[in-house]
Amino acid sequence: MRVKYALVTGGSRGIGRAICIKLASMGYNILLNYRSNDEQAQKSKEAIEITGVECEFLKFDVSDKNQVDTVVGGWIENNKEKTIEILVNNAGVREDNLLMWMTDTQWKNVIATNLDSFYFITRHIVAQMLAKRYGRIINVVSLSGIKGMAGQTNYSAAKAGLIGATKALAQEVARRGVTVNAVAPGFIETEMTAGLDEKTLSALVPMKRFGKAEEVAEAVGFFASTGSAYITGEVLNINGGLYS
Ligand code: NAP
Q1: Residue 56: strand pairing partners
Q2: Which residues face 181 on adjacent strands?
Q3: Under 8 Å between Cβ of 155 and 142
Q4: Measured in angstroms, how far is the CA atom of residue 67 from the centroid of ligand 1?
Q5: Distance from the CA of 72 to the center of ligand 1, in angstroms?
Q6: Which of 63, 141, 190, 234 could tie 113 with a disulfide, CB 3.0–4.6 Å?
Q7: Closest of 196, 13, 237, 188 to residue 96, by C-alpha
Q8: What is the model's pLDDT at position 3?
Q9: Cβ pair 155, 94 in contact under 8 A
Q10: What angle do CA 115, 91, 176 make, to 5 degrees?
Q11: How many CB atoms lie within 10 A of CB 192?
């Protein structure tokens, strides 16, 4: 039985599902986190298990420290013989508004889900990686965190913060064989972008199309591989040429 695991947050849909399938194809058992969509999580699980690995649900709200401590901390405590080699902090939300109209709830939810979650989850996992002297942490950020996007001060701040955290942690853990990198998607076809005017926005992209979740997952697969060992603190744009 395989004993190596990858924990992917927000694995029930979109980019997270594609990442789970990619890591499963690399032989990793998947710990699939999601918040509420049981039906979609089940679909991800089926697609993962077709590759021959196991998929276990870790259902919790990534923005809730108590839930993270209970579920992630509990799993580690109860599975001491198993190793989480890969952590992908992918779960995210956007709640767009101009700053002058933004509510406290919109600000707090977006910062908590996209940024606080990194802190809550990663500190549980990194200790084990340091002890084993091997680990791959990949954070899913955004073009918004690099160039800033009007109507997304909350989301841009959260993703920019996550980029800073990626670079800082990379330096803390580099000597122990643990790498920390980020992928920064532009416009990717998922439910998060379903409400956007794809035709108009695609015209802004040099490749003239939105990206696919699988195209983000390929890059995550590279950062998750042993072959990327000498790359850390890096942010890889995946945006069809739409740079700032
Ligand atoms: P999506 O289709 O909306 O899926 C979001 C995923 O995150 C779902 O699995 C959802 O779980 C989970 N999630 C949301 N809030 C959560 C919470 N509090 N606790 C646990 N899980 C939570 O989004 P996506 O487009 O795949 O986005 C994935 C990541 O890519 C996000 O970090 C996003 O910011 C980033 N990104 C996306 C794009 C894009 O164009 N799509 C561009 C740049 C960056 P449930 O199914 O249970 O709700």
Answers
A1: 31
A2: 138
A3: yes
A4: 18
A5: 19
A6: 63
A7: 196
A8: 72
A9: yes
A10: 65
A11: 17
**Number of neighbours of residue 80 by Cβ within 10 angstroms:** 8
10 lines ligand 1 (CB under 6 A): yes
Catalytic residue numbers?
155
Q: Hey, what amino acid is at 110?
A: V
Q: Which class is 3-238 in CATH?
A: alpha beta
243 pLDDT tier (thresholds 50, 70, 90): confident
CA distance 87 to 137: 5
Are 166 and 235 in contact by the 8 Å Cβ rule? The answer is yes
Q: Whose CA is nearest to atom 9 of ligand 1?
A: 10
Establish whether residue 185 lines the binding site of ligand 1, counting it when its CB lies within 6 angstroms of any ligand atom: yes
Q: Tokens standing for 228? A: 């990327």
- Residue identified by tokens 């089940």 is 42
pLDDT digits (tens, 9 = 90+) for 168-219: 999 999 999 999 999 999 999 999 999 999 999 999 999 999 999 999 999 9
Query: How far is 222 from 225, CA to CA, in rounded Å?
Result: 5
The secondary structure of 180-201 as a DSSP string is EEEEEE-SBSSGGGTTS-HHHH
